[in-house]
Amino acid sequence: MISPLERVVRSDGTRILVSEKIGTKQEFKLIKTTMTSSLIVLSAAWAMWSFFVSSLLFLCHEHHTDTLPVFRHLEHLPRDLLLRSRSCFVLIDLAILLHVSTSKSFIGFIY
Amino acid sequence: LGLYTDFRSVGCFGLGFILDMKSLSQRQRARVGLFVVVILNLGVYIWSIVMQVKFNANDPGRIDWDDALYPSAFLPYFFVQTTGPLSQSYMYWLLSSFATDAQANVRNGAAFRCLEAIGQAISYGMNTQTEASPLIGFCVSFGLMALATAPMILLTNKTPDRIPADVILEGQEAIDAKIADEPEVVTGKMDQK
Q1: Hey, which of A12, A16, A72, B187 has its CA 20 to 30 A from B107?
Q2: ipTM strictly over 0.95?
Q3: Which of A10, A70, A75 has the highest number of chain B CBs within 10 A, making it the mutation to test binding with B?
Q4: What's this model's pTM, rounded to 2 decimal places?
């Protein structure tokens, strides 16, 4: 079901460029270059921020600490129920994802 | 409840619609995407902070489903479920705009995810301080977004008009097609000889 990237064709007929395999030493050099690249340096603050928000929400759900400010006042925010329904919808999401992934346009979305 | 839990998927598909607009170049889409993500997040932050400041000034006590205050207190939580994942989805799309091949795309994504994990760790640490003012988390998050926006503007201005990997591959395919045509001519001459 999972096809190697070099065989993947997008919905517009284009393919994905896959380079030749390189050695571990060369790979480490490239990782070092990546970590200090302007792309990663400029996006660093965004990375920290984008997951900062998610973690606030996650803790609010998982530990019921109501750390997200306004919600400690809500009488009926049944988090257990929300968590259960969320599990169901994760399954539905997966089913949709599986269905969409069989269509060609999904390949472009991944890339 | 279904709407609540799945609204993030709807939001991400909405952003996908913008980022897939073929009428715009990659750079233009990056700019529009950044604007949409920042504006939506800004809206939710302002809304949440205003609500919390109001609650701090006048404690409303418990708010029930049918209270008039319920929608304005609950909806920021609903929307923040969408704007958070939007910012992540957008960034992974932006990283792929710089990819020179599939492996470089993975390296960039992994490096970015590594930095995300640091943000997550700091956030968890802050959340253990449950006695601190609930506004602190939001204000730090708001400040981080403001801090992140300036370099992101620089980054979107550096975004190539087309994904480098696609341009390289097109060039390679053109050369391959040329080479594939040439041997037939050579073979033809050889046969004639």
Answers
A1: A12
A2: no
A3: A70
A4: 0.74
